[in-house]
Specification:
Layout: E1 19-23, E2 28-32, E3 37-42, H1 53-71, E4 75-82, H2 87-96, H3 100-117, E5 125-128, H4 129-145, E6 149-152, E7 155-158, H5 174-183, E8 200-204, E9 220-222, H6 224-235, E10 240-246, H7 250-265, E11 271-277, E12 280-282, E13 285-286, H8 297-302, H9 307-315, E14 323-324, H10 327-344, H11 353-364, H12 369-385, H13 393-405
Parallel strand pairs: 3-4, 3-10, 4-5, 10-11, 12-14
Antiparallel strand pairs: 1-2, 6-7, 7-8, 8-9, 12-13
Helix pairs in contact: 4-6, 6-7, 9-10, 10-12, 11-12, 11-13
């Protein structure tokens, strides 16, 4: 599966700072100092209704991570998946009378278009669950053969008790895990499971549903968590720098994935930092496909909204914050974009070296995008109020905003 084209990232003078980021597992801020190549895995979409503002906010957060690392003169090895077969996709296709593969391909293509418009840097590896199945089957067989998985009516489940570190990503108690498991695709009440929290690794073929050859597992399709584990281990290995996604993925998805990988490899941890973006609400409730209260990036673009304004709206909120999308949020972003573009369009201006460092410092401090915007706002105010004589300043500000914030002025 191919990703989307990369926009050019301008080079800035000097060098960026190492990233300090909030780690869900330790509930604290840690400093990441990768080697020459930083490694990041971000969980992708289930392509049946893409791309809403909640998606965009999440991928914007991890785009900032990439930009901070690139500014430190590192390379970035970024991997993202597409869950192009799963119950919600099949249910939506059945409801609407569509072929599930066509639905997945159409929504994935729309997601690529939106990511391109928003200037999100693409992953080096963009992998669908279906294409990953040949690599998933051997992992499930290994877990089963090691006694870390068991069969139940043809399905194969992972035993969470096989991982001594289980629970260390989300830090939730058993009852909270059970409730979230029921809400987020698990089946804690299924009779016969060794532990209600045990997640499915391989689902035996169901009538009328797609299935693949699973070798000794029989025909079926993979569970949600093992999909990302197979892709991450194949392309990044253990101990990569960041496992990322929305805050609703901390449990069960990232918790289960970490346990799968740790049992498979005997190594700990799967990722050095588990980083989660907040949820975006509309009319007082979290945007969700099940509720249908979604604002789509593609719809905003069709309405003539500049993608740079959409991106500024996302950047005006800290990535870990839960916040609400409103018309005012977008209007403020549109106005900010107009002010910034007017300021950098002048032939000269106020010296901007300090702005570069202020934006760098803000983003290195747990991706504090609102502080970065405020730094640019201050320069813009001075630029409009004072006659400067630095011919390089407007261009430097423009390159900084492009390179570090992903906004083209």
């Amino acid at each position: 599966m191919h990703a989307w084209p990369a926009s050019e990232v301008p080079a800035l003078p000097g060098k960026g700072r190492d990233l300090q980021i909030h780690d869900t597992a330790t509930q604290g801020t840690i400093t990441l100092a990768p080697g020459p190549v930083a490694r990041i895995y971000v969980c992708g979409i289930t392509p049946y209704d893409a791309t809403h503002i909640g998606h965009a906010a999440t991928y914007n957060a991890f785009d900032l991570v990439q930009r901070v690392w690139l500014d430190t003169k590192r390379q970035v090895h970024y991997v993202q998946n597409v869950t192009d077969v799963d119950d919600p996709l099949l249910e939506r296709a059945l409801r609407d009378g569509h072929d599930w593969t066509e639905l997945a391909e159409r929504e994935t293509a729309l997601f690529r278009e939106d990511m391109t418009a928003l200037r999100m840097l693409p992953p080096q590896h963009y992998i669908g669950a279906v294409e990953a199945i040949p690599g998933i089957v051997p992992l499930v067989e290994r877990l089963r053969d090691a006694g870390a998985a068991y069969e139940l009516d043809g399905d194969v489940y992972f035993s969470v008790e096989s991982d001594a570190h289980f629970g260390g990503v989300s830090n939730l108690d058993a009852e909270a895990m059970r409730l979230l498991s029921a809400e987020r695709g698990g089946d804690p009440d299924r009779p016969g499971k060794k532990n209600p929290l045990d997640p499915m690794l391989w689902m035996a073929a169901r009538p009328g549903e797609p299935s693949w050859d699973g070798g000794s597992l029989g025909r079926g399709r993979p569970g949600w968590h093992i999909e990302c584990v197979a892709i991450a281990l194949d392309h990044l290995g253990m101990g990569f720098d960041i496992q990322g996604g929305g805050s609703d993925l901390a449990f069960p998805h990232h918790e289960m994935g970490a346990s799968h990988a740790q049992v498979l490899t005997g190594e700990f941890p799967m990722a050095k930092a588990y980083v989660h973006a907040g949820m975006v609400a509309l009319h007082g409730e979290k945007m969700s496909k099940s509720k249908g209260n979604l604002v789509f990036v593609s719809a905003l673009r069709r309405a003539g909204v500049d993608p740079a304004a959409i991106r500024l709206a996302l950047l005006s909120h800290h990535y870990r914050a839960d916040w609400e999308w409103t018309d005012d949020v977008l209007a403020e972003a549109v106005a900010r974009l107009e002010r910034w573009r007017a300021a950098v369009s002048r032939p000269d201006g106020i010296a901007a070296d300090a702005v570069v460092e202020e934006v760098r410092e803000a983003l290195a401090n747990d991706l504090d995008a609102p502080a970065a915007l405020a730094a640019v706002d201050r320069w813009v105010e001075l630029q409009n109020a004072t006659d400067g004589d630095d011919e390089s300043a407007p261009g430097l500000v423009s390159r900084t905003v492009d390179a570090l914030l992903g906004v083209a002025l």
